[in-house]
Design brief:
It is built from 6 helices and no strands. The radius of gyration is 15 Å and the shape is globular. 69% of the residues lie in helices and 0% in strands. The chain is mainly alpha-helical. It starts with a helix and ends with a helix. The chain has one domain.
Length: 150
């Protein structure tokens, strides 16, 4: 389980941003769709976190030195769900590689629990909010993007 200390890095803002940028070398339109969903997913996370303002578990329990921000929802769970599920959908990743993409948000969520920087409900809430966001906002955002850019 020690690898989760390093694996959680893939849920941070900068690595996810680099993943989004790298997709533009493959297909600009599909990368734009994934990027827009990911960007607004971050915005949803930010708004909810700063509205609810739930405290994290006590710092004495953490297995990492530094984490900032509020606890609910887990940004790693929410944004990684949006990013990796969107990549799987819009880039039509073949089996068995698509399974890795689907597993990523769940492994990242578990890494946050392993590091003790989130409560279980923070991680599960992040997954649920991300799923709801993709179901409700995805068709609308992609249609808006297609009508204004492509």
């Amino acid at each position: 389980m020690y690898f989760l200390r390093y694996f959680t890095f893939l849920g941070n803002l900068f690595p996810q941003f680099l993943i989004c940028l790298s997709l533009f070398f493959i297909n600009v339109q599909q990368a734009s769709e994934v990027f827009i969903l990911w960007f607004f997913g971050y915005a949803v996370n930010f708004i909810i976190k700063n509205t609810i303002r739930k405290e994290r578990p006590p710092k004495a329990l953490w297995r990492v030195a530094h984490v900032n921000g509020h606890s609910y929802p887990s940004g790693h769970s929410l944004t990684s769900f949006v990013l990796y599920f969107s990549i799987a959908k819009y880039f039509l990743i073949p089996y068995p590689w698509v399974l890795l993409l689907y597993a990523m948000p769940f492994i990242l969520g578990l890494s946050r629990l392993y590091l003790r920087v989130h409560h279980v409900e923070d991680v599960i809430g992040g997954w649920i909010i991300a799923y709801a966001y993709l179901q409700m906002a995805s068709p609308w955002l992609i249609a808006m993007l297609a009508s204004h850019i492509f």
